[in-house]
Every structure is written in C-alpha cells, then in structure tokens.
Amino acid sequence: MKNSETSAHALEPPHRGWHETGLRLQAVPAAKSYALEQVTSPVGRSTTAFRRRHFPRLSISLWNDWRWQVRNRVTSLTELSHYLKLVPVEKRAFSACPGKLPLSITPYYLSLMDPDDSADPLRRTMVPTWFEGVVGPGESGDPLVEDHDMAAPGLVHRYPDRVLFLATGFCAAYCRYCTRSRMVGHQTYGPVHSREAMERAIAYIEATPSVRDVLISGGDPLTMADDRLEWLLSRLRRIPHVEVLRLGTKTPAVLPQRITGDLVKRLKRYHPLFMSLHFTHPAELTPETARACARLADAGIPLGSQTVLLTGVNDSVETMRSLMQGLLKMRVRPYYLYQCDPITGSAHFRTPVSKGLEIIRGLRGHTSGYAVPTFVIDAPGGGGKVALYPEAVVGKNGNDLVLTNYAGGTYTYPDCGGSPGTEAC
Ligand code: SF4
C-alpha cells in the first residue's frame, strides 16, 4: 500500500524530502532535542501521554512538525498493532478486502483513539474491519457517478456554476467510509492529478464562463506542498469569471500541525476563499485543532463543516449537538450533515435516513440555528445533493397552516393560500 502511494503525485514533496535524507526518528538524541525544542503549539492531554509513551525521545517541536506526522503515518497492520489492541474483525480486514482503500493514520490522530476499545468512535472511522468486504444491496464503487461527469481529468462538472477539482489522491489519513475510496490512495488515479492533467482542467475552466465557483478537493488538497497548492490557487484566481475558491479538507482534524503561519499567509492572498472542514466527532475538537481553526478564521477564511452520519460514531443527538456546538465555538459554521454514501462495503456505517431526521429534530430549536447543519443525501446516480427536513407542516385548516415546533406544540399560521398581497393575507 505504501508503494502504491509513493509514485507520481500521490505523495507530496515534503514526504520525499524525509525519505531522501533518511532522517530517522531514532536519530534524534533525547537531551539535545529537548534543549533545542521550541514549544509553539498546544498539545492535548491524551496526545501528550501518547507521545511520551511511544516517542519518549522525540522533541515536541518535531512532533508538531506536520512533515514528521506525515512521514510517520501508520500504514500497516503490524505497525497498528503496536499502538492498538486489535480485535479479530480488525485483524481480518486485510485478508477480507485486499486492494481496498489503504490504511493511513497520523500519529497525532492515533493518539486520540482508545487503544483498548475497538468501538472507539475515531478508531471506527480509520481502522479497517472485515465488514468492508461485505457488499450490500445498492452499493457501488462510484455511487455518485462522478467519473461520468469528468469534464477534464480530475474535474467534475455537475452543477451549472461550479466544478469539483480533484487536485490530489493523497490524504494524511484515510476515512473508511470515503466516497472517493475508489481513487484516493491508489496509483491508478495518479495521472489524473499530474501537472499536465491539472493544466487541462484549468483550460476547461478558462473556457467555461459559467463556472464561477471552484471547489478544490481530492484526496486532501492541504497535503499538497505549499508551492504546489499556491500554484493552483494563483492559476484559478487569475480566471476572471471564477469568483469563489473553496478548499475541502480534513486536515484540521487529522493533521492540524499542517495549518502553519506560512500556509495561512499564502492562503490569504486568494480571497474570497472558503473552506469546508470535515469533522466526525467531538473528540476531534482538541487544542491543536482549535488553534488551526483560529489561524484560518483569523485569516478571514469563512469555515464551514461537513460531517458524515455514521453508525456507532456520531449517530446520536447528544454526540452531534456536542460536535456542532464545539465547532461553532471554533468559528466553524456547521454546513452539511451527510447521509453516508452507499460505497462498496459501507453497510456497517450507514444509518437509516430517519436517524438523520431525528438528529436534526433534536438540534433545531434546542440550540442556536447556526449550530444546525443541513441534512443531505447525495443522490446516487449523480442527482446531486438533496436536502431533507423533519416535517414542520402537519396539517391545513382552510388556508391556515398547522405547524409543529421543536417542543412538539402545534401552532396555526394564517397563510395567504394564494398570491402574496391578496385580501386573504
Ligand atoms: S479525508 Fe476526505 S478524501 Fe480523504 S479519505 Fe477522508 S473522506 Fe476521503
């Protein structure tokens, strides 16, 4: 799996640098590193305990270096068993579904997981299990048929005024429920993210004046090297009809060290630039992530969140409320709650749609409207996002609408029943 990632453009330059220099963790002398370290970032309690236990000779400054985190990702079952007490369904994952989405977890994100509990929510989202080999009805590798809507390599043009630019196939950590698990971390899609392919995608956008909004995703675009990311942003920003740029990323959750002062300084040059941040559980809202979000928000980047509804991870009102309220405190506006897409082997993650509606009902009115995301299904077959709402209109009395509020009370609203401004109003 590592080999499949170490070619073409899947791995970003910082990675190669670490490999080429041959710098090894064991080479860091304890006393010297502690003498030299500059503690500039907050480190959460469980992360500190993890670092002391597994990397006692590592300086905090190196731990907080995002390139070190990427370089030391856990990518094999053997490595994983060093940190977590694996249970049979986890151990059998690799033999049950060879060739599937690779395993990758940053040491930082691993430090947030319970090593003794396979039901730990973050662990469920990242550690493969045997259930990924079970194919349920209606599942497919590309349920949103994005490949069909590729206007150029790596460029999905589905909606009238916006495009999805798949800039890389690499992520610091791979979510087991990923909609694009068919392409992320796999060498076969490498050419899609080559410079030549990107030039073709940019040329398409230049020639298509209806495109006013470009969402850069992947993979995770914030795993790209600063220069490469800035090259792409600057090329897109030069196109007169592209009004808005957006970045979709899970980096603030799995690799918050990546949000460096230098990166933020560069991003600020390309406003209006929005970010959609992928979060799944309140355990992700650590001091490190708070600092990453604060840096982005201070740079004037509007932050929205995207969350996938997942069985055993966040499928309760309490968990979701805690996540959404926590995000809002970090100046991240909850944006979308997604019904999990029916990708191959996802049945163990998918909830009934009624669960999402129950959660929205449990949030709306019970907390600030800013903390309530829109619940959507990305329609299989390429239909795009469809928003779902709990029923609010429960009857009609003549022209009057009978409404139910968050507490279950019923109220009547004197509707116009016709055109606005008529006598009935
Ligand atoms: S970060 Fe996004 S693209 Fe990467 S594996 Fe997770 S869901 Fe997929």
From TrEMBL:
UniProt-listed Enzyme Commission number(s): 5.4.3.2
Keywords: 4Fe-4S, Iron, Iron-sulfur, Isomerase, Metal-binding, Pyridoxal phosphate, S-adenosyl-L-methionine
One Gene Ontology MF term: L-lysine 2,3-aminomutase activity
Reactions catalysed according to its record: L-lysine = (3S)-3,6-diaminohexanoate
Alphabetical list of CDD domains matching this protein: Radical_SAM
Stored Pfam families: LAM_C, Radical_SAM
Modified residues (N6-(pyridoxal phosphate)lysine): K385
Gene3D superfamilies, A to Z: 6.10.140.1170, Aldolase class I (3.20.20.70)
Radical SAM core domain segment(s): 156-371
EC top class named in words: isomerase
Assigned protein family: Belongs to the radical SAM superfamily. KamA family.
Annotated protein name in UniProt: L-lysine 2,3-aminomutase
Species per Swiss-Prot/TrEMBL record: Desulfoferula mesophila
